[in-house]
């Protein structure tokens, strides 16, 4: 639909420019004071890429069709997704690992006015929230022991899904997407 595409592109340019103005000074200041950290986190600071990606997520799950939903983004990182949800009419917040005062993630989420609750998701460990949500998301999941020999399997996911389901409102939904896992090449030899 050309109207939806036009609306998407208009929002992309508006929020890309707005976030660059808000975040570029903070990012430059951080890297001047912490040059060794550049390679670890720099890919998440390509604002134009992440505004596009998170706005596309917003549209893919249909959040542009309504307003006023309570959204929780697990492992939110810099908070781009809840930020876009908030500025586009929803009430969103995130969770992530307990952050330190000097942590760039915390500095950026504060600049974006994204509320982030500390939460470390572990296998077979329950967690709790003070409210229920209409939408719970987690994109590029790493809490499942991503790239680790202890990668979660069926039992761990079953436990997690039952736990998270307790915090979904009736007719609420969960959206999960995963980081790609490497598949070891298997070589076969003929006997």
- Give the low-confidence spans: 185-191
Backbone shape: globular
Instruction: Bin the strand percentage.
Output: 15-25%
Tell me the series of helices and strands, N- to C-terminal. Answer: HHHEHEHEEHE
Strand order of the largest sheet: 3-2-1-4-5
Radius of gyration: 18 Å
Distance between the termini: 58 Å
Number of contiguous helices: 6
Helix content: 40-55%
- Describe the biggest sheet? 5 strands, parallel
Classification by helices and strands: alpha/beta
What's the pLDDT, averaged over the residues?
A: 88
Structure summary, number of beta strands: 5
List keywords for this structure.
191 residues, alpha/beta, 5-stranded parallel β-sheet, 6 helices, 5 strands
Question: What report would you give on this structure?
Answer:
With 191 residues, the protein is of the alpha/beta class. Helix content is 41%, strand content 17%. It has helices spanning 2-33, 38-41, 47-60, 80-87, 104-111, 154-165, and strands spanning 70-73, 91-96, 116-118, 133-141, 168-178. Helix 1 (2-33) crosses helix 5 and helix 3 packs across helix 4. The longest helix has 32 residues, at 2-33. The protein starts with a helix and ends in a 13-residue tail after the last strand. Residues 185-191 have low confidence and may be disordered.
Draw up the topology in text.
Elements: H1 2-33, H2 38-41, H3 47-60, E1 70-73, H4 80-87, E2 91-96, H5 104-111, E3 116-118, E4 133-141, H6 154-165, E5 168-178
Parallel strand pairs: 1-2, 1-4, 2-3, 4-5
Helix pairs in contact: 1-3, 1-5, 3-4
């Amino acid at each position: 639909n050309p109207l939806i595409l036009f609306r998407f592109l208009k929002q992309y340019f508006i929020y890309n420019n707005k976030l660059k103005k808000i975040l570029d000074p903070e990012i430059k200041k951080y890297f001047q004071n912490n040059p060794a950290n550049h390679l670890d986190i720099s890919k998440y600071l390509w604002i134009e890429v992440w505004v596009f990606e998170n706005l596309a997520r917003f549209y893919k799950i249909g959040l542009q069709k309504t307003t006023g939903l309570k959204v929780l983004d697990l492992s939110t990182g810099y908070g781009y997704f809840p930020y876009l949800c908030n500025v586009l009419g929803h009430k969103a917040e995130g969770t992530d690992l307990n952050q330190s005062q000097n942590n760039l993630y915390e500095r950026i989420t504060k600049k974006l006015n994204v509320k982030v609750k500390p939460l470390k998701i572990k296998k077979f460990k329950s967690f709790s929230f003070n409210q229920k949500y209409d939408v719970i998301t987690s994109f590029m999941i790493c809490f499942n022991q991503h790239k680790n020999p202890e990668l979660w399997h069926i039992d761990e996911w079953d436990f997690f899904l039952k736990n998270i389901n307790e915090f979904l409102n009736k007719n609420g939904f969960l959206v999960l997407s995963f980081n790609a896992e490497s598949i070891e090449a298997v070589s076969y030899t003929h006997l």
